[in-house]
Structure formats: C-alpha cells, structure tokens
Amino acid sequence: MLADKGYYYAECLKVCVENDVRPYVSKQSHPNRTGNKKYYADKFIYDKTKDVYTCPAGEELAYARTRKNKDKEVTGYDYRNSKACENCLEKPLCTKSKTGRAIFRNVNQDFLDTIDLKTKEDMKKYKQRQMIAEHSFGTIKIIWDAGYFLTRGKESVTAEVALSYLSYNVKRAMNVLGVEEMVKRLKQRRKPVLT
C-alpha cells in the first residue's frame, strides 16, 4: 500500500501489517515553532539504551512526563532538558518556549521507525506513488484551477469530482495514445447497449 504523509498514523499502519499489507508511507516531519529545519524533531537522535534524545547542539534530553489522552490511555512521552536549554546559544533557533525544547515520543515510535526504515529501503516504490497519484491531483487542482468545489452537498460534490477525474483520464489517454488510437480502441470495445 502506497500512501502520502497524511496517513502516517500508527493505528492505521498496524491494521495494514496485521492484514499482511506492507505499507509504504513517508514519515511526517514535525517543525519547531521557529521554522528552522536544523531543529525539526527528526534532527533529535534517540538512544534506546539510555532512553534519551540528543539535540543538534549535543545536549541530552531525558524523559520528563507521560502524555495521556482523554480516555487516560498513554499516547507518548515528553523528553526535555530545561537546564541545558537555559544556557544554550542555539535556543532561539530551536524553540520559542521559555522552559526549553521538548520532544514527543509516540508510544508506538519503535513500530513507526520500522515502517520508516522499510519505506526508505524501497523509496523507488514510494516515488512511483508520487508519479501516479500526485500528478493527477496537481493537474486538476493547479493547472485546471479546480482547487475548490463549485457545488455543495455530498452527492453534488461527488459528481463534480467524478467529472474532473473522467476529464483528466480522457485527456491523459489522448496524450499517451493519441486521439486516433484512442478512438480505434473505443470502437473495438463497443458493445450494443440494448440487445
């Protein structure tokens, strides 16, 4: 199964694996509040043996607290080192928080890391998805200026989307096969509607 970053959720990916479906989903990158890519969460390296994160400045962030959802289920853990952040010269590039930077570790992070590793190992397949799916979305949304719906209601919007994709597929077939070849193939497949 090939999917974009919007489907990078442990619960969904576990269902795939449990049903013998190998997911290829690119990892989401979580920005810091300063917008500096050098200090995105994925730049903090986790050491499983010590249970700490090492920040780009070389400081270790230790376990600080457990996060739970409204049903009191553990969702993950926060790691921080307020003392090191207090004196860090790079703090303004890393965080806007007065107490220093915190890194969240999902309760399913080991599983997510495995999915990420498998996706990176076979990036060719993942890039195929981008070529197949993203091209059509980009063409319809940007080139055809269809970034919003003209109609309202599920039935009406579904019809609008169906017409957009039908138009895209016909235009794509014309570009790939040529009009003459497309008409020839359509004539070969023609069957009487009523017999």
What attributes does this structure have?
two-stranded parallel ribbon; elongated; alpha+beta; 195 residues; 7 strands; 7 helices; 2 domains
Question: Could you please describe the fold and organization of this structure?
Answer:
The chain is an alpha+beta fold and 195 residues long. The chain has two domains: 31-104, no CATH class; 123-189, no CATH class. It is 45% helix and 16% strand. The strands form two sheets. The protein has a five-stranded antiparallel beta sheet with strand order 3-4-5-6-7, with no helix packed on it. A two-stranded parallel ribbon has the order 1-2. Helix 1 links the parallel strand 1 (2-3) and strand 2. The longest helix is centred in the last third of the chain and has 24 residues, at 154-177. The two termini are 41 Å apart. The relative contact order is 0.10. The mean pLDDT is 88.
